[in-house]
Amino acid sequence: MPSIAVVALPDAILSGVLGPMEIFALANQIVETRSGRHCPVPFPNISLVATERGSVVGSTGVSLRSDQSLEECQADIVILPPVGGNVVDHLGDRSLINWLKQQQEVGTILASSCAGAFFLAEAGLLDEKPATTHWYLADLFRVRYPLVDLQPQRMLVDGGAYICAGGVMAWQDLALHIIARFCDLELAAQCAKMFVMDGTRQAQTPYFMFDSPRDDTDQSIDPGVQHTLRWMKGHYQDAVSVDELAGMAHLGIRTFLRRFKHATGQTPMGYLQQLRIEAARQYLEITTKTIEEVIGLCGYHDSSAFRRVFKEKTGLTPKEYRRRFSRLSEV
User: Quick one: 9 and 91 in the same domain?
Assistant: First the structure.
């Protein structure tokens, strides 16, 4: 029966610290109820550890008191939770990084959710291996750790000796996966039902948001490209060619394409497609318009082409997306 330690990192998101512990405790309770109190529970030792024994302040300002210091910890599975703020600010704790390396050497399974993967990567434990983290942090992660095979579309990656879960709340997926892997699928399903959680999520793509870090308000962007970006945001449903967009910017085609890519990281048509898909998502979330109406409002004339691109970008069909994310009581 594996022992589990959750690391209380400074500025940790406390749901990601306490949440997994609650799920593992529930798994123990279910087994006791099902098999009797004298039956061994799956997770007999669930502890909270920190760099040093004592209080650790989380992202909300609330303090937790750790059971053990890192040096005292002897767990089979170690979980690194999400942290708030700028994760890079927390990567300078070399005692934690060196401890993670030591844990890997003695066969401890290292698990992370959200930004916790940065600590594993900082220790070099994910080089040449698949991993995931929060989709919003993907660009930063790739820049810092180019040797890691980052797959941000995935909700969870199990590499055997390590496990990475994606978004802030993916500690739920991580905890359920650990229960399924070290106990059984039935127990994991029971925990998911008791906590009313979706235990079947495989991808983060439905949660991706179109968020270009540089847009039409950035004064460092070429004024012509700024003008074009503003036009595209207001007229994403209109048919337009690259030649016409370059003309709006008063730039030659090659110069326009180069400056547009520098400003947005995308081609003009790729950017326009992102705008259209984001608009479609909004329509599906907050209106009762039919899918065919949404397709027309977003500038698509080929229904099959729209459905193909939408599935590619979100991982769901338009109907599935509306069913999961509609903010209306009835659609």
Answer: yes
The predicted pLDDT at position 217 comes to: 56
CATH number of the domain where residue 14 is located: 3.40.50.880
Cα–Cα distances (Å) from 310 to 120, 123, 207, 209, 323, in that order, read 33, 37, 13, 13, 15
Please state the domain count of the chain. 2
Q: Is 313 helix (H, G, I), strand (E, B) or coil?
A: helix
Is pLDDT above 80 for 58? yes
Domain boundary among 207, 239, 262: 207
In three-state secondary structure terms, 49 is strand
Q: How confident is the model at residue 213 (pLDDT cuts 50, 70, 90)?
A: very low
Compute CA 109 distance to the chain's CA centroid, rounded to the nearest angstrom. Answer: 21
Query: Does residue 236 sit within a domain?
Result: yes
pTM for this predicted structure:
0.75
Instruction: Decide if pLDDT at 27 tops 50.
Output: yes
- Residue 6's nearest CA partner among 66, 96, 92, 54 is 66
